[in-house]
Specification:
The chain is mainly beta. It has one domain (about 20-265): Porin, CATH 2.40.160. It has no helices and 16 strands. It comes from Chryseobacterium jejuense.
Length: about 270
Amino acid sequence: MKNYLFLGMMGAALFFNSCSNNDDNINEATETKLFLKKAVINYYDSPYEPESITDEFEYNTKGELVKMWTNGKLSTIEYNNDRPTKVNYYTNENKLEYYSNLYYTGNQLNQVKSMYVNMHPIGTLNYAYNSEGQLISSTNCQSVECTKPDTETLTYKGDNVSTHIMAITSGINFSIKSEYSYDNKLNPYTNINKYLKIMMGDVNPLNKNNYTVIKNSNKWNNGNWELSENTTYTYEYNSSGFPVKVVGTNSKGNIAVQYNYEYITL
């Protein structure tokens, strides 16, 4: 599954193992305080040509993620009392293109509204959680009426997402189901702000550990689930137990994706 970070509106199936805490600490405690500095993702299963995504991260002295670059495009994060309240997205020319405002109920992020600088709305994401504080659903409304929102639902086994279903209803009626197995090592996004993980457009930051197998199935309209692909992941770890290299191999034995991670201490 592609790891689009800070896209905001689509792919709200994100994180939340750290939502189970009742405080607003920015980071989960780990013995080794390593922060993700860089992630390079190469997809080899594109129908057109290999695709590469490079994410770079910058933190302040408090360990808050304040800047991120995706293939050179800058995003900046604003905070209030240790909570992110706004994410600004810039063009390649470093001009503000659009922004997202974050809204909370208690200690949970419940809504993200995105808007272009000309005040034209992009859409609204609404989130729901289980009794453990884990994200279990999101709706992506691209109109005020929100008559056909795209939805995502998640189930968990312990601190990891076990099943993720994305249902696309805007224009087509198509669903994708992903089922996961995991290792017992630390996830690269462990020490990133728990609220920002919700906006990262991928299941990966939601987890305590790293997936080793993804089983994907598709469904059109109200039909049956059809298996589309199994991907198996192998890992190389650093001395602190964080992944530094990940290779995903499809059911034909071909490399589908490779991740390379770099870390820093603050």
